[in-house]
User: Fold Riboflavin synthase from Heyndrickxia camelliae.
Amino acid sequence: MFTGIIEEVGIVQSIKRTGESFVLTILANKIMNDINLGDSIAINGVCLTVTTYSTTTFSVDVMPETVKATSLATVTQGSRVNLERAMAAGGRFGGHFVTGHVDGTGTIVAKKKVENAVYYEIETMDKLLKYIILRGSVAVDGISLTVFGVSENSFTLSIIPHTLSETILGMKGKGDVVNIECDMLGKYVGHFLNRNTVEELQKSTGITESFLEENGFK
Assistant:
């Protein structure tokens, strides 16, 4: 579990590809002070497992399914990436619950500076947009953010200077692909409602159309 508060920006030192999978080795600083084999680290919002590490770098395996479902396929040697270690049980909780299980990707279609903020409009799939609501939470490249606006096929974020300077989002612009993880609570509610059809609700509650009509509901 993560919070969406990025700890530092790392640098991809090497990529070793084997078929559709690859091993990422990342140069980092802050998070290396407390790292162990098997630790979960979110890289651009994708939860991955530490397989080896040194004093300055760590490596993770990226599976074919992760390559297909996220933007990690676009990283190259020298790419900057957002890093966050799994949330400590006694730590301060500053963002929102982020699992590191990316729901899909989006594309930045507009970037506009407005006074001290920068507006990003991100276009994405309908299956993700149904969970993105005005003033709700969303994780973009692992960053916990608040939705500023929602349209038919996109959503808008208003990013403050601190976030721009402390994450890779400030380096991205129109045409760049980002990872999106929708709010976990919204997904659970949506899953529950989708599984409980009218017939299932009638069986579990005993409330049917005829019962409602008999009691004055038409």
